[in-house]
Amino acid sequence: MVDFQQLNHFLAAASHLNLTQASAELYITQSALSKQIATMEAELNLQLFIRGKRGLILTPAGQVLQEELPACINLYQSIVKKAQDAYRGYRGHLTIAILDGLPFQNLLAEIVPVFKKEYSNIEVSFVRRGYSRIRDGLVDKSIDAAVIFQSDTPPPPEFTSLLLGSSELTLFYSASHPLADSTDVSLADMRNAVFLIPEGFDSGIQIIVEQAKTLDFSPQIKEVDCFVTMALEVEAGAGVGLISKDSSLLNSPHTINARLLSDTTQELALVYTDSNRNQCLRDFIGTIRAGMAAASTDQQALRS
Predict the structure, then answer these.
(1) What's the pLDDT tens digit per position in 180-191?
(2) 168-265 has which fold?
């Protein structure tokens, strides 16, 4: 069977009509090129060149191959490249939602550059979403994965999660709050406050309820649609909010960050559906797992 090396050798010879010049272009000996052409002619049962004293002359069959082969080779190479890209997810799009109350920098800042370097033709988009829009987006595939609190992950088997790290939670309230100027504030001082909790942040509700119970009071819980809304209402003095201490929503000069709770560290996870067949997602998850494995190996080396 004729291979692509033979085809390329034929095209070089057909272009130069001179074995010496063609072999020099191909960085092979003249005898090796002559043998390749002879083998190709035998396999095709065609005479492609007439050997003359002044060089080579293409036969009609050789002329047809010279005219048609370049397009065939380019088409084949294009098809193979597309197949490789499809298989490895090199061409595609990945959309990742970040829960609107979580920081991006501490979660994916190290992973994303590594992924983009390896899969440079995958476009990665990040969006901010509240819990309800994240669940809807994962189901309808408008987003491929989302970073949320692990304890609030929708149940399997439809949803799968991969741990990314952790984040400590903190209460915050308006700078106009009656306790704003106090230096010694405790959770007990908040027994009459309204605790604003984003819809779907069930772990947040559980933390507040359980810790308030130890202080003999039942907190007033008001659910809002997302963390952004919660931050706006807190700033307006409508209640007290609970959020990651690293969230950019705490940067407002009109709110006060108060760590009045204990044991608030929450695990964070990348959540996705197994029914999502986007190869880009699989490659992204593979990059995360590889990074975790490398980090684990480094830690073990340090211990030893």
Answers:
(1) 888 888 999 999
(2) D-Maltodextrin-Binding Protein; domain 2 (3.40.190)
